[in-house]
Amino acid sequence: MISDYVKGKKKFDYPSVIQNGIALHRAIDTFTDAHEATKEAKEIFRPAYRLYSGAFVDVVYDHFLAGDSNEFTEDSLHNFSLQVYKTLDGYTAHFPEKFANSFPYMKQHNWLYNYRTRWGIEKSLGGVVRRATYLTESETAFGLFEQHYQLLQHCYRHFWADLKPFAKQQFELLQNNTAGNT
Predict the structure, then answer these.
(1) Residue 64: helix, strand or coil by DSSP?
(2) Which of 17, 74, 79, 160 is the most buried (most CB within 10 A)?
(3) Cβ contact 59:128 at 8 Å
(4) 77 Cβ neighbours under 8 A, 6+ residues apart
(5) Residue 87 predicted with pLDDT over 60
(6) Which residue ranges make up each domain of the chain?
């Protein structure tokens, strides 16, 4: 969860379990950016948002994952989100300042659960704009999301079918490397 706030070698300032999480997040980001389905999805947002198109696709993928009945029921997503917040509560001393400032709102408004809703994604797309230096509006992004919903969902399905085994493999590699170093 904090990987986007930890730059470069700063990851070595964290305990090994957090370093593994950062490494996994970075591997997933690299895989995501290189995937053909992501490249196709980015083209929907690129004319209006250029380099930020990937950030919008990440949010869109979160929406489809949260609503993926092969991964979550409404109840299991709710329980999963609460468990994530509870786990994160145990690591607040390690939060970078920007994440520490947003985490209470994330938890209070259950962002992880609300990714499944269109209004939750609308708010999340607005969050991309608030964190971006050169963007001023997210209404166009939400309109593109709605206009290209079926295509974006197709891109998600293609991407997710490849990402899930990749992430599992990367997680196991990190776990094995950590176990071998202790």
Answers:
(1) helix
(2) 160
(3) yes
(4) 66, 112, 113, 116
(5) yes
(6) 14-67+115-180
**Tokens coding 55:** 């950030």
**Considering the entire predicted model, what is its pTM?**
0.91
Q: Which of 66, 51, 52, 1 is nearest to 28 (CA)?
A: 1
* Amino acid letter, 75: D
* Phi and psi based region of residue 168 (left: phi greater than 0; alpha: psi -120 to 50; beta: remaining): alpha
Contact between 90 and 122 (Cβ < 8 Å): no
SS3 of the chain: helix, strand, coil, percent, to 5: 80, 0, 20
Rounded Cα distance between 174 and 139, Å, is 39
Q: How far apart are the first and last CA of the chain?
A: 24
Overall size of the chain counted in residues: 182
Tens digit of pLDDT for each residue in 138-171? 999 999 999 999 999 999 999 999 999 999 999 9
